């Protein structure tokens, strides 16, 4: 059973914590993925909860079954096995379309081009009168510029909370694809008590919370952890050629991920299972660095040798 309570400690007492890692299958896992996966895994396992793996492949242009399989394999090699079967958003179209139907009275059919809408920054309301859903139109939620306030648990300034003014946004695209916000809000709202993810998704959280509330779903607790970035400030991603994790060196990869998070396991731990157990016991997500040390593609063994003497500042 899932609760919508606002306090991590209360969830811990009353319900089984449920969290997830939800990668888009656009390439192999990189160090940024590993940091997020490990953080979400430890967060629920510290509460003796369930950890789920959801493949966020709603975007038909960007999904690859090969990447999804590689991600599942990489997680397994790094000691993170989901507690239920892996789910795929692409296989749950019916569920999301049902949710759009539920919102029908609050949506409109929009024929505007992306260029037309992005020029102004906010949606101009041109299609508000198109209440019936039509083919080759997108479906937008009428959000009335709702102000959403939410807290994200963290050790940083994020604790103070965020205010998002949510603009009218797309639930279904003209080509029939469903939106990331819709699919994530439905899945997280139906199943999760907590969401641990990168701080690049803070803005998305406002949109998704609004959807959960409109759909009558309970809302998970959020923790946004700092993203791993290159020296240039750009976030690691498949698009910018972030190097793939070497599956033959999982212990070193896990040590590196922990190093970025400010945690250094003893050097006498040599197995994946032991380092995962150590992480669950010792990784303190309330004590993360505010910003992660920029990623540099050192040879992993070099990096770890450095970590024995240089601990990142927290
Ligand atoms: Zn429009």
What profile does the largest beta sheet have? 3 strands, parallel
- Radius of gyration over C-alpha positions, nearest whole angstrom: 20 Å
Bound molecule types: zinc ion
The neighbouring-strand order within the major sheet is 1-2-3
Shape: elongated
Give an account of the 3D structure.
With 314 residues, the protein is α/β, with parallel strands linked by helices. The protein has helices at 8-14, 31-45, 65-77, 93-102, 114-118, 180-191, 202-214, 250-260, 272-282, 300-307; strands spanning 18-21, 50-55, 87-88, 107-110, 138-141, 147-150, 162-165, 169-172, 194-198, 221-225. The chain has a three-stranded parallel sheet, covered by helices on one side. Strands 4-5-8 form a three-stranded antiparallel sheet. A two-stranded antiparallel sheet has the order 6-7. Strand 2, helix 3 (65-77) and strand 3 (87-88) form a beta-alpha-beta unit. Helix 2 (31-45) crosses helix 9 (272-282). The longest helix is centred in the N-terminal third of the chain and has 15 residues, at 31-45. Residues 1-13 and 307-314 have low confidence and may be disordered. The site of zinc ion has 5 residues, from loops. Residues 110-112, 126-127 line the site of zinc ion (ZN).
